[in-house]
Amino acid sequence: MFPEYRDLISRLKKEDAHFARLFERHNELDHEIRNMETGVVPADGRSIEVLKKEKLRLKDNLYTILRQAQTSA
């Protein structure tokens, strides 16, 4: 996710607890969705859709933080 911000992401994960929590939650959702889609964890389409929407909101929030941090650097 966001390979162009790799260094900034590493820095923010260490320096910004809020960013780190959002990033971790995004990764957790990614893992959970993948398990549901592959049948490791039983789920219906609606449950997967809800998690994907949450993951997308987190990604948008992370991107906003990255852009703001890049601008202020």
Automatic annotation (TrEMBL):
This is DUF465 domain-containing protein. Pfam families: DUF465. It comes from the Bacteria. Gene3D superfamilies: 6.10.280.50.
